[in-house]
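Researcher: I'd like a structural prediction for the single chain below. Treat it as a standalone chain; there are no partners to consider.
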Amino acid sequence: MWRNLGTPVAVHPSQLVPGLYVWLNVRWDEHPFISNRFLIKHLKDVAVIQSLGIDDRVFYFPEKSSVTPPEYVPPPPTTAELEAQRVAQLAAERAALQAEIKLKEEQKRQKRQRQRDAATRAERSWEDAARKTREALLTLQRSPKAAGQMIADLSNDTASAIARSKEVLLHLLGDKKEQGPQFHALNVLTLCMLLGKKAGLTERELSDLAMAALAHDAGKVKVPAQLFKTIKRKKHEEAFVHQHVMFSYQLANESGAFSKDALAAIADHHEALDGTGFPRARREMSRQASILALVNRYDNLCTPEALDQEPLMPAEALSHMFRSEASRYDASLLGALVKMLGVYPPGTVVQLSDGSLALVVAPGPESLRPQVLVYSPELPKDEAPVVELQTEPELKIAEALRPSTLPLDVLKWLNPQQRLSYYFSVEPAN
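Model: Treating it as a single chain, here is the predicted structure.
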């Protein structure tokens, strides 16, 4: 009767020992043994099988064997195999490094593109708003109702964008060669909107604040322009300058477009909580008026209208208001303005901890870590790196610098403007 030898089990020739019943799964003429299946009796049989080069075609039958093969121990790699492994590893490491470099370059490109897109949105929005603001302010005296509607439309659109946005970003804008009342008006509008949003104003309240911000100095057209060009004014000249508040209120009121809250903010935009303001030395102010008065003072310190008044660096202006004028303002709003602009507001020239120079172009989530344009004279300014310091823990601001202390070539490249211009871009809510 035919006998089943059992189930063959693969075995490596290095595991062979006498007592194993093996099967060489090759043709009969490919080995020197009488049969393909036999019991290994001698070590020389083991050596012969190992010399045949049939590593993957050797099996043994456990039921026919008197011993169990030892555990398989792979042979050490040859020099050629080690070299091949090293070459393969180096190639894999190079490929991984190239992939990492490519990923980082793409991330950097995308981040820079997002920054440029946001700055471009702010620039285009500013240009559109500047045109409308200039036209409205020049029209307000001869056609109050038409100008009032223009201001109302711009204010409503701005308030809606700010109120409904997920994120509002402040940007220092590029060079603005032309002059006009729109510069100060749009700076004040921008900061009022951002501060008003942080203060929790509703969309309607933001719109009223925007209208007041755009028109708060409209009455200056009724005051001789030379009186604003100097701080050395006689008493009667100072009184005349103070009247621009009343003139602004009257022009806005004649338009019929301004609410009571907006008119009140215009009337009180030079008042102070400690009673040192003008024209009425009021100590009580609405939330909108408090914001407008605070922002107006900040922008006037940074970009004074008087030619004989030294403009303060943005950081100096905030420091001066906080240390010397805090009693004039709502403490929570002043604190919010400092937090919003940061310790180094846009327009500040700084030296970084690695020794490089930079210009602050936007606040960051952390007060001490804004976005900075790094001085890179080998590149056009619009291609220079903008670094978000909150993402670079090893890099920080060492100190703020006065532009007058910079070498001329550095000053020309950075070009911190005498007249700061800034505007916002918004990220729509989901």
